[in-house]
Amino acid sequence: MQRQLRKKSKAKWMMQFLLIICLLFLAACSSNTTSNNSTNTQPDQNTNENNTEEAAETSGELTVGIEAEPTSLDPFNSTDGNSATVQSTMFEGFLRFDEKMNLVPVLATEYNFNEDATEITFTLQQGVKFHDGTDFNAEVAKENLDFVRDAENGLARASFFSFISEVTVNDEYSITIKSEEPNSAMASYMAHSSASFKSPEELKKKKEDPDHNLDRNPVGTGPFKFQEWKDSEQIVVTKNENYWNDQEQPKVDSITFLPIVEASTRVNKLKTGEVDVIFPIPTLNAKELEQEENVDLYVGSSTNVFYIGLNFKEEKYNDLKVRQAMNHAVDKDGLIAQIADGYAQVADSAIAPAVYGYAGQSVYEHDKELAKELLKEAGMEEGFKATLWTRNTTEFVSVAEYVAIQLKEIGIDVEVQAFESGTLFEMLDAGEETDLWIGRWSPGTGEADYGLRPNFASDRVPPNFNNSGFYINEELDGLFDDALRTPDQDQALSIYADIQMKIYEDAPWVFLHIPDTIIAKGKDVNGIYVLPSGGVHLNLVEKQ
């Protein structure tokens, strides 16, 4: 039976209640799906509760095909989804998200905010041990949070925890996180995959020897423990026989993650039974798998938003009419039909419906004549030249080329330039020579502040965060702060709705589409669920 997470702040209880009823969660289609947009219950959740004891005795080896090798097995030092999925089998934090994006307890039993939401206090589970036998407690949690925030350690997730001003140990199993400014999103931040804890022995080794590789020595408290990482071949985790949570013991002996770059290869290995689960899946391959009798295909809305970023340092984008023209020029329905094969929906906000605080807007309808008229009114009747940066993957290049064709029809001559993802991110972070770029954004916290602030706040321009378009709007800056300060969640939701309206009307992006999340598994695999963020929860997986 799942322990219940109790909260002592009435205002924050309301936030949790609204989170439950407002978030759209990823639903999985049954096998041989006939509709790209169907939303059924996740088939992995239908295990007969009367057979719990029998299911707990199930054993086996699970093989998972992922699109790329993880960059790191350290939650503090990675930002990619492949790493997070592998890490989540071994590491745990105070909280996590379930398939409905509800906050559920893991290493915390309860939490509460103070009245002005500048502090959040967690009461911790007792009797928890890391894989190396060391104890988890408040001192260990503080040591971890201090370590990741220390700029000298150079960790990729340091900025994610920048909202923390101080961490205080109250007693062995109670800890308080403080923020200089009110921040009602702190609980969601602490449910993020990066907010996981590693053994203090590993931190000690790193402090004593800077060459100790935390990326390759994962020691957490989770249901699986690290066995091996063979570069470009596989990562293997095995059952933690001493896992602290009696109610959620692992049901397979091991999970092997295979990096399989080619999507068609992943699909073929699933069809032949060489792998049990694959993700992500390109839309064309999804249509193929719909016809497979021994495959369950999962399709559901994600928290990702595709967009075209505009650099406001370029004078040509300073006129609102130009930005509106570009939004009207792109046929989003056509893009979804031709490029996404129907597995997407039009983006009617800067965040997706599955993000807490989302508020949809009236979309920019496809209208080439209106787009041309707006350019004429802006004094750009002859159009202009532009450069569009994109990642060099098939999906991103296809979107970029489609957009270029659409913009060409209103006189904007676009040159598409494709780069490896890391190179592109470095170019955007440098903030030099940026013109247009194809972006895809998803807030790992599942809520509006992290969905909006990194991309549109004035203090988040390069090299700080994601506002690579140097979009400056002081009115929005004030609203972001107001939304976090208020303890009244109804008021906060109203402010976030106002922010989204202003962003959509001001068009700092060309808003494109929200892609579906698609994964597939063999019919003999159960007990997994998929988050709208695209993460796959494998801790209770079983193989019949």
From TrEMBL:
List the GO molecular function terms.
Answer: peptide transmembrane transporter activity
Positions with biased composition (Basic and acidic residues): 199-215
What are the boundaries of the region Disordered? 34-61, 196-223
Q: Which UniProt keywords apply?
A: Signal, Transport
Bias (Low complexity) ranges:
34-50
UniProt name for this protein: Glutathione ABC transporter substrate-binding protein
Q: Which GO terms describe its biological process?
A: peptide transport
Query: Solute-binding protein family domain spans which residues?
Result: 103-459
Its cellular-component GO annotations read: ATP-binding cassette (ABC) transporter complex; periplasmic space
- Pfam families reported in the protein's UniProt record: SBP_bac_5
Question: What family is it from?
Answer: Belongs to the bacterial solute-binding protein 5 family.
- What does UniProt give as the signal peptide span? 1-27
